[in-house]
Amino acid sequence: MQKTVLIDGMMCPHCEAHMKKTFEAIDGVVSASPSHERKCALLELSRDVPEEELKKAVAAAGYQYAGIKA
Predict the structure, then answer these.
(1) Whether the Cβ atoms of residue 39 and residue 6 lie closer than 8 Å to each other
(2) C-alpha–C-alpha distance, residues 46 and 1, integer Å
(3) For 2-68, CATH number?
(4) Is the pTM of this model over 0.85?
């Protein structure tokens, strides 16, 4: 299962690495591929992770959650 999380505020590869580590610490996230250029992160999931949990992780990392790409 995949989800694309839209994120505002990432500006460099360091930001991407920070979000990758943040997402991959969540139970159910197998891998995360953030892109500051596309302003999103593609998540590979082993279970359906609630949107609210992803939103909190983005905010805790210091970025702005902008939704889930349909």
Answers:
(1) yes
(2) 7
(3) 3.30.70.100
(4) yes
